[in-house]
Write a structure and sequence with these properties.
Helix content: 25-40%
Distance between the termini: 40 Å
Largest sheet: 6 strands, antiparallel, barrel
Shape: globular
Oligomer: single chain
Radius of gyration: 23 Å
Number of strands: 18
Low-confidence stretches: none
Mean pLDDT: 97
Length: 544
């Protein structure tokens, strides 16, 4: 808890917000942020609390976001370190813009986001929350669609009165290894011993993507589990792309065409996906695989934002291919040997090292169990209650920018398409790998850092196939070019998950049925535990 007196009700709050580094994104999202701040200010005023914005809106730039780490530091220099601080966001934001000031802030902190698919404040909120958890900064958190619901207003009053917010976290429990099935526990221990003996390498194509402090694992925590980093440069990736021959890139495209992947192409480089963009993406796929092989990497992560976006089309198509068991072959230049043949080269989007360590462990467990090891991370993007077609549940929208594997889609490659990435974030375009998550059982998980130790939350879920009309509606409310998974997280309410989750990302892998998924989760939990990672089971998890 903070050092402030919790018995004195809040009378004034200082409001801050954080945005993107990219001016175009901040300008597009500013209207949504203004609306959030207006509604939130009214809520505080109704409770007798005044709101003071820590810095003015910049009329010249057309927005009022903190848009750099330096700007954030300068603003926090003028904020009383004992002030009642409210961070509010309606958009994706770079946490390192505000984290330096929040790390030294001594007063109570409340983080707030809108509940919207179109404006990904939830993703930005979870990123910051995970970063604050890693940094050991106490805070409370809330979210709301319109800031009139009872859940939000009741807990806002609690924060005003007591400078803390209470959520139901009864769905989380520490792993009892003795309660695991014996065969699963033994298999997990065996796999952990193998990893620590034959250590693994994460290929890191530039670290710290988009200010995601929560996505970085320090070597001192990562190395003891048998995992090490090979720090690579994205400039080397661009250089290697230049060595790929046109025929090699063409062979990747032809393989995908034969699989039935539909490329939605046009002629305008600024707004449409073009064959030239796809060609460069195919080069990237080959180049990244060869660099990974050169350094003996077991998994890789490409940052793409920032820097690479200004040089080449999006990395997402290559990322989705890497995460799949069935993918275009890549050969070593000199020997002609197929690289990573018949298996994924796990890719962790946006160089999220927590997701990378998770994908590595999942790959070992699923492979040992004879399951499809195709895996991916997704943004926890949004969700709504759905009634119909035998479903009466809160259904999450999980999305990532095109890096999901085709094995996770209805119809595989033939059920997928590739569409141009939105110009606001991807000026040079490039195609996604877009599909609808196939129905089935999943194991979801998140590795995170808390208290200078590695932890992992994990649970079971069900991917449901919603009616096409509802799927299309949800796509229109989010990012229609990206793959989408409609997921139910078993035994966890919307608000309990939001209150607990320590990241903007969540990893998923499929199990063919409930029993198999639960067994795979048990093996994975045992492996993490044997590696010294603190395991927390979330929601309904039965091993019977």
């Amino acid at each position: 808890m903070s050092n402030s007196n919790t018995n004195v009700p809040v009378k004034e709050v200082v409001l801050i917000t954080s945005g993107d580094l990219r001016l175009s994104a901040n300008q597009v999202c500013w209207a949504a942020q203004e609306g959030l701040e207006r509604k939130l200010t009214q809520c505080f005023q109704n409770a007798g609390v005044s709101v003071r914005r820590a810095f003015p809106v910049d009329s010249r730039s057309g927005h009022g976001f903190i848009s750099s780490q330096r700007m954030g530091m300068d603003i926090f220099a003028d904020i009383d370190p004992e002030a009642n601080l409210v961070f509010a966001t309606a958009a994706w934001q770079y946490s390192h813009h505000v984290l330096p000031g929040m790390r030294s802030h001594r007063g109570p902190i409340l983080t707030v986001a809108n509940w919207s698919g179109q404006w990904p404040g939830l993703v930005g909120l979870l990123n910051l929350n995970g970063s604050l958890v890693k940094a050991g900064v106490p805070f409370s958190t809330l979210w709301s669609k319109d800031f009139t619901d009872e859940y939000f207003l009741t807990r806002l009053k609690e924060w005003i009165d007591h400078k803390t917010v209470t959520h139901d976290l009864s769905h989380v429990r520490d792993l009892d290894v003795k309660a695991l099935p014996e065969d699963a526990a033994n298999k997990g221990k065996q796999l952990a011993a193998e990893l620590q003996k034959q250590k693994a390498i994460l290929g890191i194509f530039d670290e710290g993507c988009m200010g995601m402090y929560n996505a970085i694992i320090d070597d001192e925590l990562l190395n003891p589990i048998g995992v090490f980093k090979e720090r690579l440069s994205q400039s080397a990736l661009v250089a290697r792309m230049r060595t790929i021959t046109p025929d090699e890139a063409k062979s990747v495209r032809q393989w995908l065409d034969k699989k039935g992947l539909r490329f939605i192409t046009g002629k305008d480089e600024n707004s449409e996906l073009t064959d030239a963009q796809i060609h460069e993406q195919c080069k990237m796929y080959i180049a990244a695989a060869r660099i990974a092989d050169d350094f003996g990497c077991d998994a890789i992560g490409i940052q793409y934002q920032q820097g690479l976006k200004d040089l080449v089309p999006a990395s997402d198509l290559a990322e989705g291919l890497f995460n799949n068991s069935d993918r275009p072959p890549v050969y070593q230049e000199n020997t002609g040997k197929e690289l990573y043949a018949g298996r994924p080269l796990p890719h962790f989007n946006e160089v999220d090292e927590c997701a990378g360590a998770d994908a590595l462990v999942t790959n070992r467990c699923w492979t040992a169990l004879g399951l499809d090891p195709s895996t991916t991370l997704h943004d926890v993007r949004w969700g709504e209650q759905f009634h119909g077609d035998g479903i009466d549940e809160f259904v999450w929208v999980l999305q990532i920018s095109g890096a999901a594997p085709a094995n996770h889609f209805v119809g595989g490659y033939a059920g997928a398409s590739s569409e141009r990435q939105p110009p606001m974030y991807f000026p040079l375009g490039g195609g996604t790998l877009k599909g609808v998550g196939k129905p089935g059982k999943i194991v979801w998980s998140r590795v995170f850092v808390e208290g200078n130790a590695l932890h992992v939350d994990m649970g079971l879920g069900t991917v449901v196939q919603l009616p096409q009309e509802e799927t299309d509606r949800r796509w229109k409310h989010t990012t229609s070019q990206w793959p989408m998974v409609s997921a139910i997280l078993e035994g966890i309410s919307r608000d309990s998950f939001m209150a607990r989750h320590r990241a903007n990302h969540v990893n998923i892998a499929y199990g063919p049925d409930s029993k198999t998924a639960a067994h795979a989760l048990a093996v994975k939990a045992a492996m993490f535990d044997a590696l010294g990672v603190r395991v927390h089971l979330c929601g309904t998890v039965n091993f019977d």
